[in-house]
Amino acid sequence: MKALFELQAWLGHRSPESTQHYAKISPNTLTKAYDDAGYFARNIRTIEVLVDREAGASGAAGSGEPWQHYDFGYGYCTYTFFEQCPHRMACARCDFYTPKESGKAQLLEAKDDLQRMRAAIPLTDGNQRVRGLRRSAGSEPAGRGQPLRGWALGLSAA
User: Fold this and answer.
1) CA 121 → CA 15, 29, 46, 157, distances in Å?
2) How far is residue 119's CA from residue 131's CA, in Å, rounded to a whole number?
């Protein structure tokens, strides 16, 4: 991205859009530049999501029943807009949180029609700080593209 702004200044354009138009930067080229710079590896992680297909088929999801269950490793979050949740650090006290050792979570895991998927979760500044502290303490593996549980997102069980 820095190169775009340097080129913009060099060409005397007022907006990066003008420079982008003349430089013919395609979305694929831009995505490759982000990937090459490691942006996605630093700022986005994947988390496993259990999708309850029965809740969708029966119409229960339409009436407010949870159908997505974000797996933290120690519990589940059913907040539909989890990736935008401002309270990701205090899940244990949240109404959307279900501990894995609870009967409700065990019933969920026993269902036959669960679909396991991965969701991309952007890391917040707080998540980044916690990840940095854990990495420097040696308690978090440094791996690119690996799915992470709640501890790696900076989520706390207490």
Assistant:
1) 30, 23, 6, 18
2) 19
Quote the pLDDT of residue 146: 44
pTM, full prediction: 0.55
Question: How high is the pLDDT of residue 102?
Answer: 92
What does 33-97 look like in DSSP terms, one character per residue? HHHHTTHHHHHEEEEEEEEEHHHHHHTTGGGT---EEEE-SSEEE--TTGGG-TTTT-GGGSTTE
Residue of 86, 95, 77, 66 lying closest to 149 (CA atoms): 77
Structure tokens at 146: 């690996």
Euclidean distance between CA atoms 106 and 35, whole angstroms: 38
Q: What is the pLDDT of residue 103?
A: 93
